[in-house]
Structure formats: C-alpha cells, structure tokens
Amino acid sequence: MARILIVDDDRFTARLAAAKISQLGHVAAIAEDGPEALQQVADFRPDLILLDLMLPRMSGLEVCRALRADAATRDIPIVMLTGKVQERDVEAGFAAGANDYLTKPFSPRELQVRLQAHLKHAMRA
Amino acid sequence: MRHAIVTALVYYNVAVLLYFALATCAYLTLLITSAGEVMRQARDARHADYDLLLTSPLTPAVAIIAPAYNEGAGIAQSVRSLLALRYPNHEVIVVNDGSTDDTLDVLRREFALRRIDALYHPALPTRPVRGVYVSALEPTLTVVDKENGGKADALNCGVNVARAPLFSSIDADSLLEPDALLRLVKPFVDEPDRVVAAGGIVRIANDLAVERGSVTAVQLPRRPLPMFQVVEYLRAFLAGRAGWSALNSLLIISGAFALFRRDLVLAVGGYTVGCLGEDAELVTRLHRHLRERRRPYKMVFLSDPVCWTEAPESLRVLRRQRRRWHRGLAETLSRHRGMFLRPRYGSVGSLAYPYFLAVELLAPVVEATGYLTLPLAWRLGALDPRVALLLLALAIVYGLVLSLGALAIEEYRHHRYPTWRDLLRLCAYGVAENVGYHQLTVLWRLEGLLDLLRHSPTWGTMERRGLGAS
Amino acid sequence: MEIALIFMLAGSLALLAQLSVLVAGKLRLDRAAAFERRVRRAAEADIILLLADEADEPARRRFAAALPSDPRARAAVAALILDYLPRLRGSVRDGVRALFSEAGFAEDYRRMLASRRREDRRRAAGALGALGDVAAFGDIARLLRDDAPEVRLQALAALGALGSGDAVAPILGAFAAGLVPFGPAAMSLLRLGAPAAPHLQHALTDPSPRVRALAAQLLGHLEWLPAAPDLSSLLRDPAPDVRREAARSLAHFGLDESCEPLALAMEDADPRLRAAAARALGATGAPRAVPILRRALADADPDVALAAAAALDALGRDGRAALAAAADADPRAGACADPVRAAGPGDLPLGPFGRAAAREVLDRATLGALHVADPAEVTI
C-alpha cells in the first residue's frame, strides 16, 4: 500500500485521482499549490508524487526542482500532470527532474496503469 | 450695475445647470450601454472554453513587458507570478529603467541571469540599453537593463526587444490573476484580423489577502480613502469603459493591464515619451492611425480579466496621482485635437473625444465655478435657497444612480464582494462620496489642469521617480 | 422648478429600481448558488466514484439508482457531469455516454435542439457535442445558421467534438458568410483533426482568400503531409495572407522539396512572409537551405534576420558553422565588393542585423532560451 501525493489546483481532477488511487488500495493526499505540496511532502512522506505543472503562485517546475534539490526527496518518483503538450514544456519538466508525464484531459485508466508501473519500479529499487 | 451682475449670474447658473443636465444624460447613456455590454460579455465568457485556449496552437505568443524602477523589494515575486500565469506561450521581459536600488542585482541573483549579446534594434528610439540578460532558470525571462528614461521609454524598449505578435504592458506593482492573460487574449484569437488592443479591469488590492503573489481571499479595503476609490474604479470601468468598448471608441486602456498588437504599436511609433498618461495617448493615436487608413478594427474592454493594484492610501499621494491623470488626459486630448468632430474619425471623433473633452476634462472647471458663484449669488440675493437645495439634491441623486448602477452591474455579473456587509459598505461610500471626496477630486483635477497650463517643471521629476509610485 | 421636481422624481425612481435590481440580483444569485451547492455536494462524491470506476456497467447501475427523481435536480446532475467531461479522456467517456443514453438524458437534449428558447438550443447542442452523439450531427450542423450567435458558437464547438469530417464544409460556409468568427471556427476544425484534413486541403482552392488562409493555417497545425505540395504552390497566391499562412504551415512539415518555393518566397516584399519562409527553411533540414538563409541574414528587417539565424541554428553542422562565422565576422565588413566572387561565409554581406542576430541566437541557444515567438503570426 503506497502513499501518493497529488498536487493540483483543479479540485475535481485531484479528487478523481485520489478516488482512483484509493480504489487501487493506496492512500492519497492532495495539495493545491506549491508551498502546500512541499509541506505535505515533509509531513505525508509520499512514495510517489503526481504534480500538475500549472499551479498558482509557484510553478510545478519550481516544485519539482525544489524536490530534486533536497536529498531527502530526490528519489521520489514524480509524474507530471500537464495540459500543455508542447515539446518545450515536457522537456522542461524532465529537465527539472520529473520521471514521467500524464496529459490532461485526465484518464483514470491511464493513471492506474502508469502508477502501477512506477510503484513497481520504485519497490524494486 | 448690480442688476447686470445678477442677470449675468442667473444666465451663468442656467448654463451650468444645462451643462450638468447634459453631462448626466451622457453618464446615464454610458451606464446603460455599459450594463448591456457587460451582460453580453458575461454570456460569452460563460460558454467560453479557456482550457481549450490553453492548449490550442492558435493562442498567440504574448510578451509581457514589465517596466521596473526601484522595485527591488517586490520584483522577484512579481516576476515569479508573471511567469506562473496560466498561459501556454508567454515570455516576460523586465525592463530595468536605470534603477538606483538593487533591482537588477535581485533579478540577477534570483533568476541566474546571464548576459547575452542581443540584437537590439531600436525601432522605437529609447535611452541607451546597457545589457540584455536571459535567465538560466527560466527560459522565458529576459531582462533588459537600460538608462533611466521613464515608463514610456521603458515600455518602448520592451517593445523593441519583444518578438511575440502581442505584448502586454504591466505595472510592476500590480498583480494579475492567473487566468487574466488567457481571458484577455480571447478576443485576439476570435478575431485576429480585427482586434488590435484589449484592456482588462483594474481592481483595488488594498487589504486584499495575498500570499506569495496570489490572491487568496477577496475583501474590501479597511480605510476610507481606498474604499472611495473602489467605488470610483467600479464606476469608471463597469459603467464607463464597457460602454465605450461597445461603441468601439475606447480612448483609455489602463496601462496597468493592456494587450496590444506589437506591429501596430511599432507602426504608430510606440509610446510617447514625456507625455503623462502615455497609455491613453497611445490608444488614441492607434485609433487615429487606423481610422485614417480606414482599416476595420476593434478595441475591447473586458470586465472579466482582473489586475489588482495598490491604491494610494494617503491624500498626498492620491492628490498627486489625480493631478497627473487629469493632466495626462488634457495632454492627450490636446495632441489629438485634430480628431474633434471630424467625420473621418467616426464615433471616436464624434462621441468619445467630445465626451472626454466636455464632460471629463472640463467638468471640474464648471463644477468649481459653480461652487464659487454660489456665495456670490446668495449675497446678491439672486439665489433661491429652495432651488439651490433641490438642485444639490438632484446632483446627489444622479451621482448615486451612477454609483449604484455600477455596483449593480458588479454584483450581478462578478459578485466579487459576496457579503451583504460588503455591499452595504460600498453603497454607503457611494453616498458619502458626494460630500467631500468628490469635491476633493474636483480640486485636484483642476490643479492638474493648472499644472499643464503652467508647464510645471515637476513633471520631469515625477517621471523619473515614479513607475510604481503614484 | 417643476421640471427640477420631475427630474428629481425620475432620479429617485431610477434609484429605487437600481436598489431593487441589486437586491433581487443578489437574492437570485444566492438562491441559485445555494441550490447548486446542494446538488453538487450531494452528487459530487457519487460522480467521482462513478468516474473512478470508468463509469462501467455496475457503477452506472449504482449511480442511476441514486439519482434524484426531481427533474430539476436530475438536470443539474447531468449538467455537472457534462461540466467535468472535457477534463476526462479515455474509456470513462464511453461510460458516461452510455449513462446518458440509459438515463434518458440524451433523448431530452435531442428534443431540446428544436426548442424555441435559445438557451435550451445552446445547452442541448453543447451537451450532445460533449457526449459525442453523432446521430444529432445534421440538426447541430443546421444550428450553424441559427439566429442567435451563442447558439451558432455552441453548434460550432459541438461539431468539433463530434469528430466528423463532414462538418468542414458547413463550418467553412458559415465562416465565409461571417456567421462565425475566425477563432472558434479554427478551433473547431482543429478539434476535428485528421478527418477534417482532406476537406481542408480541398478548401485551399476556395474562391475566398479568408477561407484559403484559414485552411492553409490549419493544415499546418494538423501536419497533414499530403497538403504540402499544395501549400508550396500557395506561396504564389495573390493574397498576401494566404502566402504567409502557407509559409508558416510549411514549417510544420520540413520537406526537402519545399526548399525551392520557399527560396522564392524569401524574395517577397512582405517581411513577415520572409520571416515565415526562413523558419520553414530551417525546418527542412536541407543543407542547400544554408546559403539561402545566410543571405537572409543581411535582410533589412531585424525579425527576418533573427528568423534566419534561428533557422540556421536548426540546420545542423553547416548551419551552425555559418552562424558562427557570421557571429565572428568583422563588424566593419559591409557589403561584399563582388557578390559573385563571394565564396566563404565571411565574404557574404551581413546587412545591418546579420551579425547581431547570429550572436543573439548563439547565446540564447547555449542557455536554451530562444524567444517564444513566431514573428509571422497574426493576420491582418
């Protein structure tokens, strides 16, 4: 049973992802912006983070970079959620340290598949 | 002799009355037109798919130009929130207008600036550029360091550096809502061959709950002075600009949050340096340019995209601001007096310009003389106190009609101030405005006109001091 | 005196009217908001569970059983699900579609298409488009000619969502007739995607230049390869907008064959066309584009010079070598004395902006910070 942190200011998507995650037998937590996310990472200690790129105040890229800069959180797999499917942003996301990306509109099924793959990978590591 | 004076006074008072009757008609017409336009926009906005704009290749690139003068304290946060705007392809160009504080150093440090050898072509002449920097952390941030030249000069510099087809002028101390740019760009996406400029609404941010550059809760200012300004701004935008937008005669688009086509601004020569109210002057010049060439175009005001700005909290600063604004208006109207009532300039020449000249510009003059002649008329026995009181009451009633009209539009459409207490406060200030605040603004606007007539030298120093400071 | 009294009365009445509008408006809003909040709170958790389950059969049955019987509440729930639908993709959408037909919502909407009230027509078109109800295609296409602009716009969006290439002709027709503006029409057509492309290619020969320009632009965004030769010929179209859109679109394809037509376009008087052509040449990746772009560095327009420099940067080793040479060239090197004799990169004239453009592009490229823009964008 893994702990997964969802960082998205779109409440609907966040709740849907959380419901899906619970369905799969894991525990989900939601953060609505960058600062809250960083706080939650410290408190909730997730095994994986779903990170929306377009956040208010602090961009998703900044959050990702902050997490990668900290030794304690450097290895947590990060899956970007992005509505911008332009190359430059995906590139930027990977450059900032993300492991994978999921496009919005959101597909519960795809989330399930990718989550399971990443968690399996993380468990092995 | 006395008889002659009395007669003159009576005629004069009648003239003043007629003036105010006409002005009131103009205000009311504008109010009704604005209400219609805001509702129409509401309908469009309700069904607009902004998420689609976010991912569409049709959404044009926008360069946000933020002139900065001695903004060391808040510049990093401002830039961050501009970079974080919900928009698919925008870049931020900060123009450091020869700041004497640590603005550039802060930017250099916070954003890992690296100097590049840039092609700077002064299509618009500006003060010399000292360097162009790009951020190693944020690929869409460019910082231009130049010698001080004032806001218009800094904006022109930004326009030179920008490559995007649209640019947005921003005040460094203002705060844009995350969706604001996306909403403001929509008219350009819908009608790229028509829309040439767009402006959003500017709201007062005093005492707003802001955390790390983002609005967390909307609340009204606590102090009275900003409260008066809230009512004024709502009137100006929702009961004024919306109407002019509907008539495609928008003469003023707030520089705090405006979006322009870069090629057209280049074609008309950019902002005029040394002119107060450079934003209105540019817009007026654009109208002129396009009408002269008979090119069909649109300039729109949208009440949806919001820019929050700090309003002056002291009388001294507010007075300076209002003097500057009125003087700027006078300068703009003076520069473009060739448009007055000429048929070639359509509704801009026949409606907007005359209105701004007769009603906006001259109102303080007429009102002031009205107040001054009152005691004289009374001394000479030409004043019937009942009439005077009745007319005063009339003036207040109509003033209220306008303020409440604006509030009604605000409430119906945007309901940003959701509690009953807020609404009551707003109404109360709308009433209280007429017994003091309004008269103060009349005085200040007069002072602005006098400044212009005297070619007051403070103009130069005002320019250098204040980009953010009002 | 009396006149003043009359005005006074009128003013007071206006005031009273406004105050009541304010109050009534606020009450109405409060009530509507409260009702909506109630429905949402009640239904949202169920809707989320439904969607998390991909709206499969058992989930749908559970959900349908829990639906309120009050028609207004049912409509609110249906509207809420439709609000969420654009944020979803994948098999869950099929599930929602099935739910709507099983619960009878789809039927209701189809009937509403012919309603006398414009708001109903609009909402119905929106719902059926979001649901992907292709059976309603004909009726929705007819709504493109509706009297109400918001209904037309919604019909446009719905056709885009329905995904049939047959929508292209009616959409272009409505656009040419000025019934729908450029933006929504283009977005709708883009949404159709590949099915629309062959029809758009056909529209490249439309008599209206606005339609040709629109088609040319969209074919680029859709990256519809078969249209590339037609787009190359459009580089010689009589209308400047069409030529520009053709050049911009060719940048999406990067075909070797486009080199020659694009090289010709580099001689056009319109600087925006030259800039677009430069960009497109960069996209071809063809070595023979390098000398053309090198010459373009000398362009009198800075945007063109920058576009040419950026294109050279994209052209591999040869391009970057030319760029580096231009960047290092002697700034005093003006026009080359004998252009015919010019052999190496250092000999070619760089015009007023060539060297600076090269330097800027090289610096920005090192930092990964190229300008966002395509200077050829925006038509007028």
Explain this structure to me?
- The complex is a heterotrimer of chains A (125), B (470) and C (380).
- In chain A, 49% of the residues lie in helices and 19% in strands.
- Chain A is α/β, with parallel strands linked by helices and 125 residues long.
- Chain A has a single domain (3-124), classed as Response regulator (Rossmann fold), CATH 3.40.50.
- Chain A is globular, with a radius of gyration of 13 Å.
- The relative contact order of chain A is 0.18.
- Chain B has helices spanning 2-46, 50-55, 75-83, 103-111, 151-161, 180-190, 224-246, 262-267, 278-292, 315-335, 346-361, 363-379, 385-414, 420-432, 437-453, 458-465; strands at 62-68, 90-97, 113-116, 129-135, 141-146, 166-170, 175-176, 195-204, 209-211, 214-217, 257-261, 298-309.
- The N and C termini of chain B lie far apart (49 Å).
- Residues 458-470 of chain B have low confidence and may be disordered.
- With 380 residues, chain C is mainly α.
- Chain C has helices at residues 2-52, 57-66, 71-84, 91-102, 105-112, 118-131, 137-142, 149-162, 168-176, 182-192, 197-202, 209-222, 228-234, 240-253, 259-265, 271-284, 289-296, 302-313, 316-328, 354-367.
- At the B-C interface, helix 1, helix 6 and helix 13 of B face helix 1, helix 8, helix 10, helix 18 and helix 20 of C.
Any chance you could write out the topology, listing elements then pairs?
The complex is a heterotrimer of chains A (125), B (470) and C (380).
Chain A: E1 3-7, H1 11-23, E2 27-31, H2 34-44, E3 48-52, H3 60-69, E4 78-82, H4 87-96, E5 100-103, H5 108-124
Parallel strand pairs in A: 1-2, 1-3, 3-4, 4-5
Chain B: H1 2-46, H2 50-55, E1 62-68, H3 75-83, E2 90-97, H4 103-111, E3 113-116, E4 129-135, E5 141-146, H5 151-161, E6 166-170, E7 175-176, H6 180-190, E8 195-204, E9 209-211, E10 214-217, H7 224-246, E11 257-261, H8 262-267, H9 278-292, E12 298-309, H10 315-335, H11 346-361, H12 363-379, H13 385-414, H14 420-432, H15 437-453, H16 458-465
Parallel strand pairs in B: 1-2, 1-6, 2-5, 8-12
Antiparallel strand pairs in B: 3-4, 4-5, 6-11, 7-12, 8-11, 9-10
Chain C: H1 2-52, H2 57-66, H3 71-84, H4 91-102, H5 105-112, H6 118-131, H7 137-142, H8 149-162, H9 168-176, H10 182-192, H11 197-202, H12 209-222, H13 228-234, H14 240-253, H15 259-265, H16 271-284, H17 289-296, H18 302-313, H19 316-328, H20 354-367
Helix pairs in contact in C: 1-2, 1-3, 5-6, 6-8, 8-10, 10-12, 12-14, 13-14, 14-16, 15-16, 16-17, 16-18, 17-18, 18-19, 18-20, 19-20
